[in-house]
Amino acid sequence: MYDLYENLNPEQESRAVVMIVDDNVANLKIAKIALSEVFDVFTVPSAAKMFDLLERNTPALILLDIDMPEMDGYAAIKLLKADPDTRDIPVIFLTAKSDSESELEGLTLGAVDYISKPFLPPLLLKRVELHLTVESQKHKLEAQAHTLKKQRERLQNFNENLQKMVEEKTEKVLELQSAILKTVADLVESRDDITGGHVERTQHGLSVMVSALEDLGLYREQMADWDIGLLLQSSQLHDVGKISISDHILNKPGKLTPEEFDEMKKHTTFGVAIIEKIEESTSESAFLKHAKIFAGTHQEKWDGSGYPSGLAGEDIPLQGRLMAIADVYDALTSERPYKKAFSHEEAVNIILEGRGTHFDPVLTDVFQQVADQFHIGERGDG
Fold first, then answer.
1. Is pTM beyond 0.70 here?
2. Tens digit of each residue's pLDDT (9 = 90 or more) over 235-271
3. What class has domain 10-142?
4. At what angle do helices 47-54 and 73-82 cross, to 10 degrees?
5. Rounded Cα gap, residues 240 and 294, in angstroms
6. Following DSSP, what letter does each residue of 183-246 receive, concatenated?
7. In whole angstroms, what is the distance from residue 130 CA to residue 240 CA?
8. pLDDT bracket for residue 1 (50, 70, 90)
9. Band of residue 121 on the pLDDT scale cut at 50, 70, 90
10. Whether 92 contacts 123, CB under 8 Å
11. Which of 7, 63, 100, 307 registers the highest number of CB atoms within 10 A of its CB?
């Protein structure tokens, strides 16, 4: 009796396993002879015994006869495809049927090919080799796709973690930068105690104006590359040059003489020099660029009568024109030894009267629309 259950040759364990299921022993022998030089072959006489064998072995391909007693090939493939453990094993039907309906039914049930009996051994070998080559390439592609997917997931996780780390580090750096700026601004104000809170209030006014410009779509081109958070932070240094002005002038309880006022004007150029000195020690550019413009141009006037450079119109950078409004509003509404604080309404009217002389006409019109947002409560002596 022909041995239906062939054991694998230990020296050929790397070869693919093909399972042949047919109730005809002659067909099994012919198929085994045709395939054994290339593959390890299991010969099985029935579908029932095939399922017994599949519990211990998973072949690379099954050659399945259709016309078998007890369970035919159609019933067998349905069970194969219903089981997660065997559904992916490719099945080639062996049959003496040659009608297209039978072939279509087999392919519909999940067979990958249809070989008519009697088959020529060389043709059978080539058909099996072809399908296993295709399957091998398919598995390689699937494995590569799986590997690439895992690599992409790992890379994405790495990038997300790296981005999170960068964001956390950046946030800490910005917090430190803000703290240092606040300390410097407080140091300047501590020497000029009549203007306490000036930095915070001008920063607030600047924020109101910038938000309004964004909402109205004005000066969009000039503001296109601005980082607004960075801009507002840098505005804290607009009066940093006052650190170089003598206490006698800063704390004088009355109006300054013309000579003293000329000295006070220098706080703009002193501020630019201080920031340029910082620039020599760092590669940071945007923040210091804004800060230098604020320091050097916030006292310029639209008609060219301001200082230190006598710039006029749009030759004055937008940052300086914006700060001019925020700075003057705070000066008007703050109490001084030589004057009382103007009311919010009085300050607004004075700024509107300066339209086209002291202030940019467009910005003055915007200020008129948002002036109520500048009024941030009672100031006391600040």
1. no
2. 989 999 988 888 888 878 778 899 999 999 999 999 9
3. alpha beta
4. 20
5. 10
6. HHHHHHHHT-GGGTTHHHHHHHHHHHHHHHHHHHTTTHHHHTT--HHHHHHHGGGTTGGGGGS-
7. 81
8. very low
9. confident
10. no
11. 63
Long-range contacts of 80-87 (CB under 8 A, 24+ apart): 80/110, 81/109, 81/110, 85/54, 85/58, 86/54, 86/58
Residue type, 234: S
Residue 290 pLDDT exceeds 80: yes
Does position 377 have pLDDT exceeding 50, yes or no?
no
Position 43 pLDDT exceeds 80? yes
Domain residue extents for the chain: 10-142, 191-374
Which two structure tokens, joined as six digits, stand for 314?
């749009």
- Taking CB atoms within 8 Å and a gap of at least 24, the contacts of 65-71 are 65/21, 65/22, 65/23, 65/24, 65/27, 65/93, 65/94, 65/95, 66/93, 66/94, 66/95, 66/97, 66/102, 66/106, 67/95, 67/96, 67/97, 68/21, 68/22, 68/23, 69/23, 70/46, 71/46, 71/47
**Per-residue pLDDT at 381:** 40
Distance CA 36, CA 20 (A): 12
Please name the helix (run of DSSP H) or strand (run of DSSP E) that holds residue 92, with its range, or none. strand 91-95
Closest CA to 205 of 371, 377, 381: 371
Looking at domain 191-374, its CATH class is mainly alpha
Tens of pLDDT, residues 315-341:
999 999 999 999 999 999 988 766 788
Is residue 242 within 8 Å of 191, Cβ to Cβ? Answer: yes
- Average pLDDT of every residue of the chain: 85
